[in-house]
Design goal:
The chain is of the alpha+beta class and 461 residues long. Helices cover 38% and strands 25% of the residues. The chain has helices at 2-13, 17-20, 39-50, 87-96, 139-152, 204-209, 267-275, 278-290, 297-312, 371-391, 399-427, 432-447, 449-460, and strands at residues 28-35, 59-62, 82-85, 106-108, 110-115, 121-125, 134-138, 157-158, 163-167, 180-184, 189-197, 213-229, 238-244, 247-253, 258-266, 328-331, 337-346, 350-351, 354-356, 362-363. The radius of gyration is 24 Å and the shape is globular. Mean pLDDT is 86; it is low at 1-24.
Length: 461
């Protein structure tokens, strides 16, 4: 049944443009339509096509952009847009058949976070589990791997398929009318039992659901770039993050000679950094990484007192002395860019026969590096909910199973949104009480094994 519908879609997609615009084209019916062909949308479609319970359902993925050109070799230089994937996300990609198709990635085995206004720091290492902390992968590499995995599973993607109109069924709709109906920009019409919105922060699916968002702009931008390191003889497997008064600065390893930069700073400072020459930009970056700032006497006293108290309790930080990050020798020409930072959260993830995943559901500050992992977590949870519905013969668009998905993912989102927003506010000020609190808090996190383990487990999830 699924193959016949795929053939019908493929035949209609090959019609001449004049016929595709004709309103007499029959409506194409699907069980699930995924709107949005980014990383999360591709993963969602692949999860549906590879799940043994769901793979015989009629599924298609709509992508507004053009079809990618035939697969070519990756550029020799790294892209400036990367993700820090967790071990849980790796397991998802392995199940989808995408992990082995990643053309390149690097592993992060350690992470050091330190404060610029005191000597407080924390260092994460995998001392208890034989797995990496994170995997640094370019967005393009993930997309290519997921596209290949979806194709291998017989999945269907419609490119140049911009959604122009979405009509969700009203409550109490009669049988046969209880479906989502879509009209594409080229006139094609589709219907489905469930519409998955994976169409990003400006989600058209979310608007059709009538779901409001809560949030605010941070008045900041994330400056990204691909960096050339000075010492190519050292193994580059540490993620570095320094909290500056204007925001966190992170270096993520790409290879022994390259790292990816994510520098959160004010809008004005971001514009200044982008306007600098490459050499001046590198100088500004190295100063921000290496310059020492004298701590206020009260902060130093509190840090020393906390260290003494923790030592008296037998809690000694395992991190040892602060390690210095690598020196940056240059920036790859043309790799500097910036994007606005904001918090955004949908009040609801589900509506009648519609559900949100990824950035359509929420947008988080990049300081924890967990935005992509949240989206991939949505894929895992929604696929499990839909498989549970299918296994008992239930309607995939039934609210009960969608509500279970929403409960699980709202909890995960609320925890991370609260954490990232709180850290952004705590580290976004030089007020003495805040500096005292974060310096002592970082020492406690470093010294108490249960806290360190909790933080590491959250990062792996």
């Amino acid at each position: 049944m699924l193959r016949s519908w795929r053939c019908l879609w493929s035949a209609s997609a090959r019609l001449p443009a004049t016929r595709r615009l004709c309103t007499a084209i029959p409506e194409q019916e699907y069980d699930v339509i995924v709107s949005g062909g980014g990383m999360v949308g591709l993963a969602m479609a692949a999860a549906l096509c590879t799940d043994p319970v769901l793979r015989d359902y009629r599924v298609t993925l709509l992508e507004a952009g053009p079809a990618p050109p035939p697969a070519a070799a990756l550029p020799a230089e790294f892209s400036n847009r990367v993700c820090a994937l967790s071990p849980a996300t790796r397991r998802l990609l392995e199940r989808l058949g995408a992990w082995e198709r990643l053309e390149r990635y690097s592993t992060t085995q350690h992470m050091q976070v330190w404060e610029s206004r005191s000597d407080a720091m924390i260092r994460f290492e995998n001392l208890e589990r034989p797995e990496d902390l994170a995997y640094i992968v370019e967005n393009e590499v993930i997309t290519r791997a997921l596209s290949a995995a979806l194709a291998a599973a017989g999945g269907e993607v419609a490119y140049d398929a911009a959604v122009e109109e979405i009509a969700l069924p009203p409550a109490g709709a009669a049988p046969g009318e209880d479906a989502v109906r879509l009209r594409l920009a080229d006139g094609r019409r589709l219907s489905c039992s469930l519409l998955v919105g994976a169409d990003g922060v400006g989600s058209a699916v979310r608007r059709a659901m009538g779901v409001r968002t809560l949030g605010w702009s941070y008045g900041q931008r994330g400056v990204v770039a691909t960096l050339c390191l000075a010492d190519a003889d050292l193994a580059n497997n540490v993620a570095w993050q320094r909290f500056l008064p204007t925001g966190p600065l992170a270096l993520l390893p790409l290879s022994d000679t390259r790292s990816s930069l994510v520098w959160s700073t004010s809008d004005a400072e971001a514009r200044r950094l982008l306007a600098l020459s490459d050499d001046d930009f590198v100088d500004a970056l190295n100063r921000s990484l290496w310059d020492e700032h004298e701590a206020a006497p009260a902060v130093q006293w509190a840090a020393d007192a906390a260290r003494g108290l923790l030592g008296a309790l037998g809690l000694r930080a395992p991190s040892g002395p602060l390690q210095l990050p690598p020196s940056v020798a240059g920036v790859v020409p043309g790799s500097r860019a910036a994007f606005p930072l904001a918090l955004q959260h949908a009040e609801a993830y589900t509506a009648r026969r519609a559900v949100l995943v990824g950035d359509a559901a929420r947008r988080v500050h990049p300081l924890a590096g967990q935005g992509a992992n949240l989206g991939f977590g949505d894929v895992t949870a929604l696929a499990a909910a839909l498989a549970a519905a299918a296994s008992c013969g239930a309607d995939l668009g039934a609210r009960r199973h969608l509500a279970e998905y929403e409960t699980v993912r709202q909890r995960a989102s609320a925890a991370l949104l609260t954490l990232t927003d709180g850290l952004q506010r705590l580290y976004g000020t030089e007020a003495l009480p805040a500096v005292l609190l974060r310096s002592v808090g970082l020492q406690v996190c470093d010294a108490v094994p249960q806290v360190r383990r909790f933080l590491m487990d959250r990062a792996r999830a």
